[in-house]
Design goal:
The chain has 235 residues and is an alpha/beta fold. It folds into two domains: 69 residues, no CATH class; 150 residues, Metalloproteases ("zincins"), catalytic domain (Zincin-like). 37% of the residues lie in helices and 28% in strands. Helix 3 crosses helix 4 and helix 4 packs across helix 6. The protein is elongated. The protein starts with a strand and ends with a helix.
Length: 235
């Protein structure tokens, strides 16, 4: 059984999805897209559940704010000469060159797109393919490097997927799958490492608990600096 309930916290309205399962305690989870899920033991009083969610309102809103800041907000590009594009945290001016073969090159602050088709839709596909190929290579390298820091936790080597995501920089499943947003290749290497560490920490602690942040602080003490840089550079 699933239904939607609402609690009010000051001027804020919190909507949550309630479900009942055979368990001993109440669980509250805020998903990256902002959905609030509450799982309660079968037979629990809806009134008691409502009061519990109400008491956690401040924490729920804090989690929602965290995920809102974490979501990518890269502006739409027009793919014209002189427009700036990011790669590994640096701005490059776009130069479009007519050629028989499609290539993308970085040279002295310029991103050169040599192509037989100079229409913006085609240029977007060409550049995105280039970004993805760079992302796959670098993200695999960074994940393998970061795993050295997790040896004592005996986590399995994750299966890495790289794809474009609208609302997240990365995600991790309990089964050991990590998904990283292709857009991260536009951020600095340290910012990408932060996201990798963040997701690998989820293989040890699945939620954003105090223990999770203690581990993240231990493995990357300056993570907040790189998180802020990521948000600032790709906002």
């Amino acid at each position: 059984m699933r239904d939607i309930h609402i609690v009010q916290y000051g001027s804020k309205r919190i909507e949550y999805e309630l479900s009942f399962v055979a368990r001993k305690s109440l669980g509250i989870k805020v998903l990256p897209e902002g959905t609030v899920q509450v799982v309660a033991p079968t037979g629990s009083s809806v009134s008691d559940i409502h009061k519990k969610v109400q008491s956690k309102s401040k924490w729920i809103l804090k989690q929602k704010t965290f995920f809102d800041r974490y979501n990518p907000r890269t502006p739409k590009r027009q793919f014209v000469n002189g427009e700036t594009h990011l790669y590994l945290g640096r701005q490059y001016k776009l130069k479009i060159v007519q050629d028989k073969e499609d290539t993308v090159k970085i040279y002295r602050g310029v991103m050169i797109l040599a192509t037989k088709n100079t229409t913006p839709p085609y240029l977007e596909i060409l550049l995105n393919d280039w970004y993805r190929s760079k992302a796959v290579a670098l993200f695999n390298e960074l994940v393998n490097s970061a795993l050295e820091k997790f040896k004592q936790y005996k986590i399995p080597k994750p299966v890495l997927y790289v794809r474009h995501m609208q609302k997240r920089w990365g995600s991790c499943t309990q089964s050991g799958k990590i998904i990283l947003n292709t857009e991260l290749i536009k951020a600095s290497k340290a910012s990408i490492e932060y996201v990798v560490i963040h997701e690998l920490c989820h293989l040890v602690y699945h939620n954003h608990t105090k223990a999770f942040y203690t581990l993240q602080n231990k493995l990357m003490p300056q993570w907040e600096k790189w998180k802020e840089q990521l948000e600032r550079s790709l906002s």
